[in-house]
Amino acid sequence: MEIPKAVMMVFPLFWFLFSTISSTLPTQANTFLPCNETEKHALLRFKRALYDPGNRLSSWSAHEDCCGWNGVRCHNITGRVIELQLGNPCFSNFEISCQEFALGGKVSPALLQLEFLNYLELSYNDFGGAPIPSFLGSIRSLTFLDLYHASFGGLIPPQLGNLSNLHFLILGGSYYSSISEKEPPPLYVENLHWISHLSSLEDLFMFQVDLHKEVHWVELTSTLSSLSMLSLFDCKLDNMSPSLKYVNFTSLISLFVVSNHFIHEIPNWLFNLNTSLLDLSLGDNQLTGQIPESFGQLKRLVSLSLYDNFFDGPIPSSLGNLSSLASLLLSRNRLNGTLPSSPWLLPNLVYLYIGNNSLVGIVSEAHLKKLSKLKVLDMSSTSLIFKVKPNWVPPFQLEYLYMSSCHLGPDFPTWIRTQTSLLDLDISNSGIIGLAPTWLWKWASRINGRIDLSNNQISGNLSGVWLNNTSMYLNSNCFTGLLPKLSSNVIVLNMANNSFSGPISQFLCQKLNRTSQLEALDLSNNDLSGQLPQCWNSWSSLTHLNLGNNNLWGKIPDSLSSVLSLEALHLQNNSFFGSIPSSLRDFTSLGLLDLSGNQLLGNIPNWIGELTSLNVLCLRSNKFTGEIPLQICRLSSLIVLDLADNDLSGFIPKCLNNFSLMATIKTPDGQFTALQYSSYEIYVESLTLMTVGRELEYKGILKYVRMIDLSSNNLSGSIPTELSQLAGLRFLNLSRNHLRGLMLEKIGRMTSLLSLDLSMNHLSGEISQSLADLTFLNHLNLSYNQLWGRIPLSTQLQSFDAFSYIGNAQLCGAPLTKNCTSDDESQNMDAIEENEGFEMPWFYISSMGVGFIVGFWGVCGALIFKKNWRYAYFQFVYYMRDWVYVVVATRLNSFCNNLRSL
Asked: What's the CA gap between 413 and 629, in Å, rounded?
């Protein structure tokens, strides 16, 4: 189980920071003197320079005492302004919009008139990438400056070094883009020499500030004798001065340096901090080597986080000396070997993360008997074998247990029944086989959190079982019977890939004790039957629905439109018939629609272009007729268009280049919310697509797929040249149509293509030379067309099998065995037609023989008078001739090679 970074990394820092801050703030009291008039007018000028869409400063009126204004605090005796607390209130009130209440605009120098201002907080606002005002360095009274996630950008003014009274400095991060409309430039420094002048600084926190130019950051920050907390998160640092032997962090309690680029071993100077350091976090930094035994010297450590690095070797046994350690995070490294006794000898341990390593060995009751305070245990994705007696009762009460992809089975672990405080249980893919115990479902119903039993071989009939967990993953097991009943508390339910049966209506029309909160439902790959019922009003909160690969039938009901919040709808591989209901046009948030593998018919509706949020549209293997509607080109966010295996006719729309996400090589964030549900738990959408000549399932990487598949239809005309503008397209399949004309001349611009299939059409002319520029191409099929001339020379094109080119009688050059001559290379389409006309009488005379008179009007007459029949017939003959030629030549070559080896 992956550690929730936002919690595990940032929470300890902010808990320490704000608990420290809160102890320094004066208590609220009535002021004895009214607000100073000069300061009031200064604040009003400050307000006029701000953008305040949420009217947070509405109380700032010239007719009111400024000490009573929202966010303003005055000294309780003198009445002078001492604090401006203007951080976005949405983080203490989740019912309001953060975006709506973000201040922006300009920070006015009128603040300079607040002579006694010691506290300035502007966090979680949006100043659109504007630089931090240098005049802030002149407010010498400041002791606290918080500009966290306020979207400032550019050079951090070195004038901040003038704030000699500053105790807390928090910089970096951008939270909004509504005002700036684009990602603001990051904050950066040319050097950190100014930081050494902040002689009173106690806490320094920088988030996403580019510090890579300052190679001596360790030496400079260690000069701050009062510094107790140093936090540098994602600051592009690339070294920790590994050659340095000693630093002067005399007061440092917490060192939090996370998500940087330290590609070296842990420096020795860290182990000089043995008298003060309580919290050390070096996670996600690419640190290498073994974890030093010297960590045993840091005996005051309470928290040690070394996750997401490249550490190898064993877990050091010296960690057993850290008797105060409450949190040990070593997950996602390359640690190997058996587990030492050290982690099991820490009586105060609360959090233990050792998952995603190459650890081996057996974990037994003896290892765990001293961990009575343990609340979180992560052993997932290791080769550890958890082997305890069936009647074992653990000394701890866990809240989070992650044992996915380790050896927990084959029997269901009965000791889990004793864990009554669990909030999150993941024992997926842990080798559990057999019948689920009878106590499981009643016990699970009392856990108001996530349970993940997926990817095991757990069996049992769940008819009549009641599920109450917020998130339940039972997918990829051997469960049978009718679908279980649901509590209205369930938010995510995944029961795909089982053997559930019975009518779907019995589940969807069940009575709930109150309005359902279900948002993600996956019942795919079962044996469910029947028609979709009309009772969709009970499921109005659904955003992700997957009923694919069942035995459902009938028309898609109009009542489905009552689930207006749907973002992903899978109904593939059932037996639905009729047309696509017009009510689906109301799904304005729909990002994925998969109706493939049914018996739907009629035209693809024009209103499909109104679903502008669509990323994925799959309608393959139905009975759709008519032309591809031009309105489909309005779907600029489309990354997958699959209309294959229908009866569509007409031309390929020239406007397909409007698919802007296929025209760019980049994969912009924020464009694919429908492909991953993450409101409570992460549920990742998956899709089975025909790519590179075979069916593949795309799940975690679906947002990187770019595909157009129009194969196996009756499309005609030429391939639109506009398609060559789709530089990000990775899979293009136009095979088995009636396309004519030349190949795309500028196909080399489609530099991301991995698979190209234009086979079984009537394409003519030479293969475009620019095809050789497609260096990522790993699947190519141009067979059975009317292409001619030399195959362009490139390492890529000659690496494909001859079957990629078979059925083009006038093609020559490797990998075909037909050598090119000057005549071959000068051939054109007229020559091909003349050749066909010359060969036709000879074929009739030699082939028909005695049956000429009888068969002429029945067969040959049709070939003479129906030109398209004639071309199709002789093209088939040429295909068969070439196929036989290639097979014989290949086997003859293999036979000769075998003879040579004898």
From this structure: 56
